[in-house]
Amino acid sequence: MKLLVEADTKIMLVISDKEMGCCMKIPKHVDVVRHAFTLQADSYAVNPLLLDSRRLTRLVEAVNPSEDSRVLDVATGPGFVAEVFSPVCRTIVGIDITLSPLEIAKQRLRGLSNLTLQLADVSRLPFSKAVFDVVVSRLALHHMEYPAQVLEEMARVCRADGVVAIEDIIVSEHSKRANFQNRFEKLRDPSHTKAQPLSRLLKMFADVGLEVENVIIGFLMQDVETWLANAHAPASQARRARALIERDANEDLSGTQPFHDSNNRIHFRQRTAIVVGRKLL
């Protein structure tokens, strides 16, 4: 086990030898995710939609952790969620599969004494059963190759009567419309696997023994050119994604409601859901 600790902070960046690739053959999609979020790390860390304090506060309020809570933030990235949970809980662990955003989180959050950052595979969480009171993940499930497995792991490490919460993009309940949105999302970012309709997300919670207690629907308003640039989408992929969104604006194919503003820039709405579940005894 390798620890990277700076003398002026109690934040630890914990990296196992296996996660550094010494002893483990990494699945192909994990390589795609790591490549994508290494490229996107800097732009992701300053994205105003993701930094929006109102959205982050809404997630904390939906979870409503006690001040004695042990919290796990799955796919923490640059640590936005860990940062807002830190003042209202006892300890927080932020994990991610990609080193670059964790390094950014380490620099951003050096003053937080109750935070540990760890490089880890979210589909095989390196924790014992029932060690956290709250397990949360934000805007990451649509990057998971096996999202049901990730949610099962999140439930496993949560104590009975604890809270598991997901905030993520959701797509239409109509499969053709859902597939159309997932198609242009994946063209923009190959690490995108599949955003789920809300009904599927709710079923996934039930399947792993979580009682859904709160659902909050929202949206992210995306400027298409900024959205493409933030992902460093190759020009050919960007053209195809842009063409699909323009077609959607004319034909209403996904429910994202694309439109042109007064400067002829095109925008669309990503619908989101916060789903909060209690782990059954």
Explain what this protein looks like in three dimensions:
Helix 4 links the parallel strand 3 and strand 4 (91-96). Strands 1, 2, 3, 4, 5, 6, 7, 8, 9, 10 and 11 form an eleven-stranded mixed beta sheet that branches. This protein has ten helices and eleven strands. The protein is 38% helix and 27% strand. With 281 residues, the protein is an alpha/beta fold.
Which tags fit this structure?
281 residues; alpha/beta; 11-stranded mixed sheet; 11 strands; 38% helix
Topology pattern, helix = H, strand = E: EEHHHEHEHEEHEHEHEHHEE
What would the principal axes of the Cα set say about the shape? Answer: globular
Give the N-to-C terminal Cα separation. 34 Å
Mean pLDDT: 92
Class by SSE composition: alpha/beta
Q: Determine the number of helices (DSSP H or I, runs of at least 4 residues).
A: 10
- The parts where pLDDT drops under 50 for at least 5 residues are 1-10, 17-24
Proportion of residues in extended strands: 25-35%
Residues in helix, %? 25-40%
Radius of gyration: 19 Å
Number of strands: 11
Q: Can you summarize the main beta sheet?
A: 11 strands, mixed
Question: In a nutshell, what does this entry contain?
Answer:
The chain has 281 residues and is an alpha/beta fold. The protein contains ten helices and eleven strands. The chain has helices at residues 28-45, 48-51, 53-63, 80-85, 99-108, 147-156, 175-188, 198-207, 224-230, 235-251, and strands spanning 2-5, 12-15, 70-74, 91-96, 115-119, 132-138, 158-171, 196-197, 210-223, 259-260, 266-279.
